Each structure stands twice: as C-alpha cells, then as structure tokens.
Amino acid sequence: MTLTRILAGAALALSVLLPAAAPAQVADLRSTTQLRVCADPANKPMSAEDLSGFENKLADYVGEQLGLPVTYAWFPSGMGFITRTLRAGTCDVVMGYAQGDELVQNTNHYYTSVYGIVTRRDGPLAAVDRLTDPALQDQDIGVVAGTPPASHLARAGLAARMRGADLFVDRRVEDPVGTMLAQVKDGTLGAAVLWGPLAGPRVKDDPELQFTPLLKEEGGPRLFYRITMGVRLEEQEWKRELNSLIRRNQDQINAILHEAGVPLVDDYGREVLP
After folding, report:
1. What confidence tens digit (pLDDT) does each residue in 133-151 have?
2. Element spanning 88, H or E
3. Among residues 193, 211, 191, 189, which one has the least CA distance to residue 260?
4. Closest by alpha carbon to 197, among 42, 40, 54, 52?
5. Contact 181, 44 (CB under 8 A)
6. DSSP string of 42-80?
7. Which structural domains are found in the chain, ordered by start?
8. pTM for the full model?
9. 60, 68, 83, 120: which is deepest, by most CB within 10 A?
C-alpha cells in the first residue's frame, strides 16, 4: 500500500470518528436530572445563596417548567466566573447575562432593562428624569465606574461631581450599590445613577428612595440592554430548548421581574408597565 493511500485512509477514518466524538462530550456536560445554575452567592437582588434573588426565583420557575430540581454552582461574578462554572461543567446555565458577550452562547433575551437615577422621594431632585437637568449641576452623584451613564454624566458637565464605585468587586465583602443608596438616603450624595435590576428591587418598597428610569437621554452609549440566559458555546439544542421556554412563558417571566421591582423596557427603550 502506498503512503498516499495510507494517509487517505487515516483521514477518512478521522472524518468519520471525530464528529461522533464531539457531541458525546457535549452531552456529558449538561445534566438531564437537574437544572444546574451558575450564580454569584452574594449578588443581591439578582442572586443570593439564601435563594432570595429574583434570578433564583426565575430559576425555580424554569426548573418547574422543565420538571427538574434546581441546584447551584456558586462563584463570585467577575473575572473567572464563566471559566470556573459554566466552562468547567459544574453547571449548565447562567440566568442573567448581557446579550453579545463572547464568553457564552446567548439565548434569546427574556428581558430588557435600563439605567436610572435614584433620588430621595421628597428631595429637590425627585422630579429629575434626565442627566442634563440643571438641578444636578451642584450635586454629588454616585455612579459605578466604567458603566455607560458615566459618559452621559461627563457630557452633561458633571464629571467633577461624579463619585465612582468599582465595577468588579467581591460582593461577599463589598456592596457598592448598597453603599451608594445609603449615601443618597443620608444626603452624602444627591443622587446615584445605577443599573435598574440592581437598584430597582432595592428601592421598590423603600419609603425614602425612588428609582426613575432614564428614558430620555440622547446620544450614546445607550442606557438599556437586553438580558439573556447564557449556555456553553456548542450547546445549540439546549439553547433552543430555553428559547422555546422563554417564548411560551414570557408573560409569567415579566410578572416575576415586575414583582421583584426590575424596571422593564421594550427593545426601543420604552417603559413596559405591569
């Protein structure tokens, strides 16, 4: 047998064997007996080890629809989260993930939310609904460093009044959003500009604070973003199953989010009311 025939035979054997091997490896990662969720144990009001977060409640609902008990792989969000959870095969879905991130494969988005401004209900800034409002000019304003609203605040001439908090922290020991809300409450800050799913649920029933969605800002970057569930890049069937579940249960998903106090908008940035 010539060398050419030997190589051709080997190539043919590999072309037959390799496609069969890859799906088997993928199938082994996803549990068929549990809904295994990747989550931060201290990311209230989204996820929490005591299962009080709204993403925990969403996971319970998804588990009910799939007929599977919910279990968790806990790891702090931020650097290494996806590598140590989803990609390591210890869990099969991240309940809340921004659309377009290359670390995961996104399902269809199941909600869209928006940044907003937190002020005191009875304070002088209670009517502010845009960052160009002159009432903000002499106020210290809390914002998470590196988030889109910081660009809008700078463009409005408020860079010197921004009081930044770190974006990536271990929330088991730090709570920058909670700190800013307390500072708005005690007057250290005039306002805080925060991501709706983080701030909305915290002030929903607070008698002193209110969250106002920023729906009137002009120019970029945009302040509303689609949120999906994240799965492994190669798991097309699992993504399609979740997409179908989202499509069939959107009204109930919205109800869970509204009940939690998450501000919802449509794909054009218009408020979605309960």
Report:
1. 999 999 999 999 889 999 9
2. none
3. 211
4. 54
5. no
6. EETTTEETTS-SHHHHHHHHHHHHHT--EEEEE--SSTT
7. 22-111+226-265 (3.40.190.10), 112-213 (3.40.190.10)
8. 0.87
9. 120
